[in-house]
Amino acid sequence: MHIAILTLTFSLPGCGSLKEKRQRMGGLHARFGDTPSVAVCESGERDRHDASEWTFVMVGLSKREVESQCSQIEEKIESTVDARVMNVEREFV
């Protein structure tokens, strides 16, 4: 069993309220939380309007599988979220 922890830090330029932040970052739980092998949560910068941090935990039978899941999540976020990815951290357990 392999576990990967993917943490992404976002910048939300021009975001003026927590409501707008939720709208711009919204749907991450719905898009990725339905997958049985993925858990997702907003893990940091909760009170800031212009930043956000999200952590994804993936479980798989091989390291290659969890690496692939990490890459797929990163690609999907880059194309669907209205924010700039400022930092990406991957940790394998």
Structure write-up:
The protein is α+β, with helices and mostly antiparallel strands. Helices cover 34% and strands 39% of the residues. The protein has one domain: 2-Layer Sandwich (Alpha-Beta Plaits), CATH 3.30.70. The protein has a four-stranded antiparallel beta sheet with strand order 2-3-1-4. A hairpin with a 6-residue loop joins strand 2 and strand 3.
Q: What descriptive keywords fit this protein?
A:
93 residues; alpha+beta; 39% strand; elongated
Q: What's the oligomerization state?
A: single chain
CATH superfamily caption = TT1725-like
* Helix percentage: 25-40%
Number of domains: 1
Task: Provide the low-confidence segments as ranges.
Answer: none
Give the N-to-C terminal Cα separation. Answer: 9 Å
Query: What is the strand arrangement across the widest sheet?
Result: 2-3-1-4
**Which secondary-structure class do the elements indicate?**
alpha+beta
* Name given to the CATH architecture: 2-Layer Sandwich
Largest sheet, in brief, is: 4 strands, antiparallel
The arrangement of helices and strands along the chain is EHHEEHE
Question: What is the global morphology?
Answer: elongated
CATH class membership: Alpha Beta
SS elements, strand count: 4
Helix count, per DSSP? 3
What is the average per-residue confidence, as pLDDT, rounded to a whole number?
A: 89
Task: Specify Rg, calculated over alpha carbons.
Answer: 13 Å
- What percentage of amino acids are in beta strands? 35-45%
CATH topology, what is it called? Alpha-Beta Plaits
